[in-house]
Amino acid sequence: MKATFEELYDKYHQDLFQYIFYMVKDKQQTEDIVQEVYIKVLRSYQHFKGESSEKTWLFSIARHVTFDYFRKLKKKRNKFLEFFNWGEEGEQLQSDQQAPEEYVLLDDQMKQIYTCMEHCSYDQKQVIILRFIQDFNIKETAEILDWTTSKVKTTQHRALKVLQQCMMTSLREEEGDHEES
Amino acid sequence: MKNHKSNDEQLKEQLRKLPKIEDKRTKEEVFQQIEAQMKQDKPSSQKKRSFIWVPVLATVCAALLIFVIIQGQDFSRSYDQSTSEMADDSDMDTFDNADDEASTAEESREADIFNKAEMQDNIKEEYRYLLDMEDTQGASHMAFLTEQGQHIIPITILQSNFSYNQINEYIDLEENDLYDIGIREIQFQRENQKVIATFTDSFELQPSGNNYSNFEKVLAYMFRPLGMKEIQFENHHPILNEGDISNNLVPLSPIEQVPYKIYQSNNGAEWLAAKTDGIFKTLTAALEEMKIAEPAFNVQPSIPEDTVIETEDQPGGQVFVSLSSAQIGDNQITVQMIEAILATAFTYGYQEVIFSIGIDQIGKYDLSEPIQTTDQINIIQ
């Protein structure tokens, strides 16, 4: 088991960590999810048939585990909202995200992109991360997400639109602030 | 449009420059944590399993006890019912516990399946569709004029054994306020890539420039979708004198840059109507035109008037169309809008449309995928 782990770790660990991090934006949660991914992978490694590449297989498992994390988070949030009977304010609740040290070093525009990613839907965010941060091509992304390549293209297009829109709004707000001061 | 593309490229470049996030733990640390977690998982699941038997045993014992008691005493029906409900509840608890232990991957898969099933359930079957994307080789096309002769209504008949003079069996033109310019009085014969036509004695059409123009357009809508570029008439009629033709050979104009709106006939039927007057050089211009009602001709807009439209060319014959309006939703208006856009986009040479209208599924249309354009309009089966 250790040998399999080491091989996977050497080949993919930092990529895997980064993918999950950008999905959840919390290092502690990322560590937990990565651990969960490895457990699943090591338990089912013997069943891996090699129909897709090892990397896309690993990432598709990571996708499932991350999805599950969000599902549980949503469940928890709904229970919380029910209990306090909160309205819209409660809907804004997010996981306890702490900006990583890497974020602090970014310039304003990159910080905006980082923040604007949260305006994308879950699917859109996945595509943006896989395509541009993880550098998977359309076909590999489709394999990981178990989608058609057309769906990847459509979602990517929409995600870029959402990001553009969000960037424009932030820019306008900033300009407004400057004018006021 | 270029500006859009360069913005996209710039954004992609910036996304690629987002910082690399590294896990600072060592390989050994990560492995130890995984190993510890895996060890912890095993006994806990055994422990959990042993607890499952507690409610199960309790349920069985309770059921046995009740059975013994029922044998000896006369209980009311209501008590029986409440007991069985209690037993059911325990079963549910047992099921829940077992469910908690199911692997997360399995849960995710189930969630995916559930989401897909839910999506299927939401597909409303009651919508009326005017397009057909199937590659139906046996389709025949006809075209009629609206009441005022301002628009053309193309009709697609999905019957391989259809012949043009049978049209009355498929549609009541009068009831649908559709006007035949005289095509029922012409005999057509399709031979490979040629159409041979013969005017019958009952063909009557006043020779005029306007009538010839409509006559030619109707013929184009009938035969251009089949790849025919001209019609050879075997006999002469004065209407042909109105066109710039020789030897009774009528060239057919390509069907290009045509916005489609909705024609409402007096019996309540709705048809996609081609607006053949006016010049709409771009798809955006056509979509803007489709927001305009023409009440004098019983023609309604196919895109809600308050819609904000954005289009963008994509590689591979695709076009991105973004639409926002308060009227867009899970309704017939939206289905008609999608279909009118698909029909219109076809006339601009696009093969697929990527829609962004704020919803992913409307009736049979999965808007999360690009949708094929078509010239199979106003389907009759």
Structure, explained:
The complex is a heterodimer of chains A (181) and B (381). Chain A is an all-alpha fold and 181 residues long. Chain A is built from 9 helices and no strands. The radius of gyration of chain A is 18 Å and the shape is globular. Chain B is elongated and about 95 Å long. Chain B is α+β, with helices and mostly antiparallel strands and 381 residues long. In chain B, strands 1, 2, 7, 8, 9 and 16 form a 6-stranded mixed sheet that branches. Chain B has a domain at 55-104. Classes of the chains: A mainly alpha (181), B alpha+beta (381). Chains A and B meet through helix 1, helix 2, helix 3, helix 6 and helix 7 of A and helix 1, helix 2 and helix 4 of B.
SSE order and pairing:
The complex is a heterodimer of chains A (181) and B (381).
Chain A: H1 2-24, H2 27-44, H3 54-84, H4 88-91, H5 101-104, H6 108-116, H7 122-133, H8 138-145, H9 149-180
Chain B: H1 2-16, H2 27-72, H3 77-101, H4 104-122, E1 140-145, E2 151-157, H5 167-170, E3 186-191, E4 194-199, H6 209-223, E5 230-233, E6 249-251, E7 260-264, E8 270-275, H7 283-289, E9 299-300, E10 308-314, E11 318-324, H8 332-347, E12 352-356, E13 361-362, E14 365-366, E15 371-372, E16 379-380
Parallel strand pairs in B: 2-16, 4-5, 11-12
Antiparallel strand pairs in B: 1-2, 2-8, 3-4, 5-6, 7-8, 7-9, 10-11, 12-15, 13-14
